[in-house]
Amino acid sequence: MDHSRTHKWMRSRGVSRITAILLVLVIVMSVVVSIPTVKYYRDRSARLACAAGLDTARRRLAQDYLSGDFTQTNVSAVEAVAAAMNGWEDLCPSGGKVYLVENKGEGLLDGQMPYDLVCGMHGSDKKQCTRLNAGYVLDQLREGLRTAAKNGDPAPAVLTFTLNGKTRKAQRTDEEVPFKRGTATTKGYEGKGIVAFYGVAGQDGAWADAGGKAGEICYFSFADEDHCAAWRADDGWTGDSYGMN
């Protein structure tokens, strides 16, 4: 038997195995490194598509405003956007919830229309997005609680809501969930994205000092990755999203 040839073959096989392992590692590392880049361009494309949709709707808002002798109500603004975009659902292609926000300026004198459009997913003012999304979610939870009461059911441990194209869950709580900021920087909530909690007046003796009518939501806590918002029947809205921008 040619031992020299055998040893050479074994060495060659060993080198081939090492080369294959290294090649796999290079591929894995390439994929890992490319994930942030892919996510960046995907998110960028989504933002640009949303901006394009809102820009078209804003132009229709301006056209409707200018052709209406500078009078525009919430109803007429909604109708103008719906006519331009064939409804509201497709304003943001990524499913972001789009809000009609009243401007507080003096219309054309300040270079503003009476209303503007803000996407709760892609809006540039993240505190405003948190405030708008929190109010929208609270309205859904109130409706869900009313539905449960009509069916003779107690306040559920979990209420579902939809936001930015996804169905999510709000947990019922008997104590405050004291968020100081968004989930991305809150210990125990990192990576959880959007979370919500609610309390019901008169349930099991909880929330006796929160105000509100028995059986209704008297407390609500909402946090996304960036900011938080909280509501109490006796205190209104608070949270870092209501602080100075």
Walkthrough of the structure:
This protein is α+β, with helices and mostly antiparallel strands. The chain has helices at 3-66, 74-85, 126-150, and strands at 98-102, 115-119, 158-163, 166-172, 195-200, 217-223, 228-232, 236-238. The strands form two sheets. Strands 3-4-5-6-7-8 form a six-stranded mixed sheet, with helices on one face. It has a two-stranded antiparallel sheet with strand order 1-2. A hairpin with a 3-residue loop joins strand 7 and strand 8. 27% of the residues are buried.
Index terms:
8 strands; six-stranded mixed sheet; flat; two-stranded antiparallel ribbon; 245 residues; alpha+beta
Précis, in short:
This protein is of the alpha+beta class and 245 residues long.
Q: Per the principal axes of the C-alpha atoms, what is the gross shape?
A: flat
Secondary-structure element order, N to C: HHEEHEEEEEE
> What is the average of the pLDDT values?
82
The number of distinct helices, counting runs of at least 4 residues, comes to 3
User: Which class of secondary structure composition applies to the elements?
Assistant: alpha+beta
> How many β-strand stretches?
8
Helix content percent band: 40-55%
Largest sheet: 6 strands, mixed
